Amino acid sequence: MFGVRYLKSRPSEYVILYRKGRIKRQGAGLSFFFHAPSASLVIVPAESRDTPFIFKEATSDYQAVDIQGQITYRVTDAPRLATMLDFTADPGGLPLGDGIEKLPVRLTNLVQVLLREKLGSLALRQALASAPDLVSFARERLKTAPTVTELGLEVIDFSILKISPTPEIAKALEASAREGLLKDADSAIYERRNFAVEQERRIKENELQTQIAIEEKNRRIREEQMNVEIAVQEKQKLVEEARMNARQSIAQREAQIQEQQMQASIALERLRKDLVETENQNALARARTRAESSQMELAVLAGLNPELTEALVAAQMDPARFIGRAIRDLSRNAERIGQLNISPDLLQSLLDRDKTDS
C-alpha cells in the first residue's frame, strides 16, 4: 500500500506515534509499520548526553571571567519532554523539530543563572579558586531546579573545567603572582638561612647539653663508685670487727671451758680423795668389825670345852676330811697302836674324793 512505512528505533530512543491527535503507540526501541500520511512521529533521545558550555560572568569586583564546563543529563520522562519541546521526526526517523538544539541551551542558561548568583558575591581571586565550591553549589541547585523537573530531566553530573580571567588581568595576576613567588622565594631563602643558623645553634646547644649531661653522669658514677668503695671498706671493717669479736668470744669461751674443766678436775679429785678416804674408812671399819667378830668368836670358843669345840668343827667338816683328820690323829699316837688296817675301798674312795675336790 502507498504511504505505509516501517520504523525501527534504537533502544535509547523513546518513540511516540500520533494519529489524529491521539497517541497510538509509545515506548523505547519500538519497531512497527505505520501509515505515514495519517500519522506523526515524535522521537525523544533518552540516552545520557553531555552538554559543554562556556560563558562570561563578572565577579563582585567587576572583573570578567570565562567559565568553561560540562553538564551531563538524561531524559527520565520522555512524554513530558515531548510536550515541552518539539522532537518531531519524519517517517524515516530523522528529526524535524528543534527540541534537540533548544534543550542544551535551556540547561546552559539555567547553569549560567545559578553560577552568576554565586559569582556575584566573590572577588576575582576567590572566584578563580572557587571551582569546587561552584560545582557543589550548582549540583545541589540543579537537583531541585523547577526547570529540570518540568522538562522531565535528571542531571547526572556537573563539572567546571576552568575559570579564567581576561588576558590583561591574567598577565597582571601572573606578574603579581611572580612577584609574590619571588618574595616567597626570598623569604624562603631567608627562612632557610635562619633555620640553618637556628639548627646550628640548637645543635651546639644540644652538644653542650650532652657534654653537661655526660659530665654530670660521670660525676654521679664517680660518686657512686666512691660510695661503693666506702661501703665496701665499712663492710670490711665490720667483718674484721666481727672476726675479732668472734675470736675474743672463742678465746673467752675456751678460757671458760678450760676453767670449767679445771674446776671439774679439782672437784673430781676431791671426790676421788673423799671416795678413797671413805673406802679406807670403810675398809678400816670392816677390818675392825671382823677383828672384833673374831675376838668375840675366839672369846666364845675359849670358854668352851676343847672336845666340844672339836666336835662342832668336825660336824661342819666334810666326811673325807674328817676321815683324813682321824687318820692324822691316829698317826700321832702310832706308838700306842699295834696294828691299823685300812681297806682298799676306803682308800680308793678317799682318793676319788680328793680328785673330785681338786
How many strands, what sense, and barrel or not for the largest sheet? 4 strands, antiparallel
What is the helical fraction, as a range of percent? Answer: 55-70%
Strand order of the largest sheet: 3-2-5-8
Oligomer class: single chain
Number of strands: 9
Helix count equals 9
Order of helices and strands: EEEEEEEHEHHHHEHHHH
CATH topology of the domain at 4-165: Tetrahydropterin Synthase, Chain A
Question: Which secondary-structure class do the elements indicate?
Answer: alpha+beta
Per DSSP, what share of the residues sits in E-state strands of 2 or more residues? 15-25%
Rg over alpha carbons? 79 Å
Task: Please characterize this protein's 3D structure.
β2 (13-19) and β3 form a beta hairpin. The chain has helices at residues 78-84, 99-119, 124-128, 131-143, 146-150, 167-302, 306-315, 319-332, 344-357, and strands at residues 4-8, 13-19, 22-28, 31-35, 39-45, 49-58, 64-75, 88-89, 153-165. The protein has a four-stranded antiparallel sheet, covered by helices on one side. Strands 6-7-9 form a three-stranded antiparallel sheet. A two-stranded antiparallel ribbon has the order 1-4. By secondary structure, it is of the alpha+beta class. It has a domain at 4-165: 2-Layer Sandwich (Tetrahydropterin Synthase, Chain A).
